[in-house]
Amino acid sequence: MEINAAKRKIPSLIEGYGETSGKLYEGVFARAPHGYRAGPKIRTAAPNSGSKVTGGIKEAVMASGLKSGMTISFHHHLRNGDFVVNEVIRACAELGIGDLTIFPTALFDVHKMIIPYIESGVVAKIMGSVNGAIGKLVSNGELGTPVVLRSHGGRPRAVMSGDVHIDAAFIAAPAADRGGNISGRTGKSACGSIGYAFTDAEYADVVVAVTDNLQSFPISPVSIPGIYVDLVAVTDSIGDPAGIVSGTTKVTRDPLRLLIANYASKLIEASPYFMDGISFQTGAGGIPLAVTAYMKEAMKRRNITGSFGLGGITGYFVDLMKEGLVRKLMDVQSFDLKAVNSIASDPNHIEISADWYANPWNCGVAVNMLDVVILGATEVDMDFNANVNTEADGALLHGIGGHQDTAAGAKLTIIAQPLLRGRIPCVVERVHTLTTPGEVVDALVTEFGVTINPRRKDLLDAVADFVISKQIPLVPMEELAARARAMSGPMEPIRVTDKVVAVVEWRDGTVIDVVRRIEK
Amino acid sequence: MEANAIKTAQAGTLESMDCLVMITEWSAGRLVEVSGGAVVRFKASMEKHINDTLDALGTDEPLRISVQDNGALDVVLGARIEAAYKRYARLAV
Q: How far does the CA of residue A398 sit from the closest CA of chain B (Å)?
């Protein structure tokens, strides 16, 4: 057993993952890159072939040269409407290809169809975020090897540095042409940005575009150019539009959550970053969307405009841009129909890759330009460490997303969360799983007010006027924890076994924590 | 009341931070059943609070108490138990 710099116990050897010595978390910015980028096989399309269209998914799997034991990757822009992962795995099973490592950016409940293939050994290992039924399966220890959880930036970093080699990438393509050019902007399965797939296209040995919308060559604008793409598979439908984009994302109407959003917005307004050119990321959750709405009021009132909105983009951000309150949107994932339509038509709505968005090891990562990010967490502890990976019962709940990356990059990282979810307190003595270290979390906002990380004395000074004018109640972490304890009563500990079901990597590829199987 | 009808009373809802309490007659002793997301971390304290509330109401009848919890705090849980029990006690035997 080893102890890493975040004081978490990590086994020296994790079966199915490897030795952890030399891979233990050392600190937020401790690890620097060295050496050269890894690369895919050099290959060329058959001369004068004219078309990369190879038939359906099964024909493309055959033509790709995929073999048992290989690693295949997917992206999750089709979210809970995706058909591609299921269809590719089914094709592999039918072709007798097994023992696969799948490397999706995320799996959703729709992918529970692959559970029989996990049980039968077609899928041997998963590196990627697991939600819903597959998350439950993994939590119960039914996958032979642990899943590896990486942030949106940690994943492209792992690929470009050679930690993960992708043998074949299957890219859901809402629009494609016979030359393999891909776009997510148009078609019946349009999803907007396909930013998570860029790195896979650049680094996989073989790249297959899976489309239900074959257009004449060349399409424009192109997200992923055909220079990276070997094969085009055409299928009836790559996804269910109802699961791909939500019609509208809604601001919460819950008064408690609105109060939290209001405090968070006041904190931003009081901070030194609230000035012309402010940039922010707020995601699609109920509270962050409400923060966006309050910030809009504040920006109008104080007559300031923002430079860019980052990350997963919603219709609310599109409205901010249309009203001139932010100049640009940098979009790695378009959450709703309005965002999809905007990225398809407005050149100020920029499609960015996960690499550009969040990879700590490149020369222009967008999160480092970020002023403010609003995040959530299932648990925050006395040291401001955040857990987004496990639920109160210790089961896997959620991937890392951009949590680590934006927290590390933004000048002001705010976690906005009700103190209690039902009876379960969000402030605890010690997080069950450590996703993001408290060193990069600046404030926690709950219905009781704003709790500032004592490390940020500058921020405490900056909000003084807002505290005096009673716009921001300041609550010390100790008081918050005491309130939570008083309301919820004493919690029973989560009992776990020694078996590791998930490895949580910090964005630089070191092991920040592990998730152990719950004792039944 | 018909001969084979089971004496039952309930209180509460399945709204967030509430619970649905069902009290029915039982053969012997007191059976407390709790289910819901918070049970894994709060089972002992929920059961204790249910028992304490019933004891304070002065009942020693055989009862089966089923609680479907959706995150109720003790103050809510106790109120729902009390309401359900008082409704139960009012029923004709």
A: 17
Q: Do residues A422 and B71 make contact, with C-beta atoms less than 8 angstroms apart? A: yes
Residues of chain A with CATH 3.40.1080.10: 49-244, 255-494
Report the predicted TM-score, pTM, of the whole model to 2 decimal places: 0.94
Residue B17 at interface with chain A, using a CB cutoff of 8 Å = yes
| Residue among A394, A421, A424 at smallest CA distance from A491 | A424
pLDDT for residue A61:
98
Q: To which CATH superfamily is domain A255-494 assigned?
A: Glutaconate Coenzyme A-transferase (3.40.1080.10)
pLDDT of A45 strictly over 90: no
| Per-residue pLDDT tens digits for A176-219 | 999 999 999 999 999 999 999 999 999 999 999 999 999 999 99
Domain housing B56: 8-90
Band of pLDDT at residue B3, cut at 50, 70 and 90: low
Q: What are phi and psi of B63, to 5 degrees?
A: -135, 150
What whole-number percentage of chain A has pLDDT above 70? 99
Q: How many helices (H) and strands (E) does chain B have?
A: 2, 4
pLDDT of residue A345: 97
pLDDT of residue A372: 98
In a domain? residue B1: no
> Are B45 and A490 an interchain contact pair (Cβ–Cβ within 8 Å)?
yes
Contact at 8 Å (CB) between A280 and A306?
yes
Q: Would residue B82 count as lying in a domain?
A: yes
Please indicate whether, in this complex, the C-beta atoms of B41 and A487 are within 8 angstroms of each other: no
Cβ(A12)–Cβ(A20) below 8 Å: yes
* Distance separating alpha carbons of residues B35 and A148, to the nearest angstrom: 32
Give CA separation, A439 vs A386, A389, A411, A425, A455, in Å.
10, 18, 12, 21, 8
To which H or E segment does residue A503 belong?
A: strand A496-505
Tell me the pLDDT tens digit for each residue of A324-375.
999 999 999 999 999 999 999 999 999 999 999 999 999 999 999 999 999 9
Is there a domain that residue B36 lies in? yes
Q: The domain A49-244 belongs to what CATH superfamily?
A: Glutaconate Coenzyme A-transferase (3.40.1080.10)
By the CB < 8 Å criterion, does A252 face chain B?
no
Distance of residue B39 Cα from the nearest chain A Cα, in angstroms: 9
Count of structural domains, chain B? 1
Among residues A384, A368, A390, A450, the alpha carbon closest in space to that of A416 is found at A450
Mutating which of A379, A390, A423, A487 best tests the B interface, going by the most B Cβ atoms within 10 A? A423
Q: Is residue B63 part of a domain?
A: yes
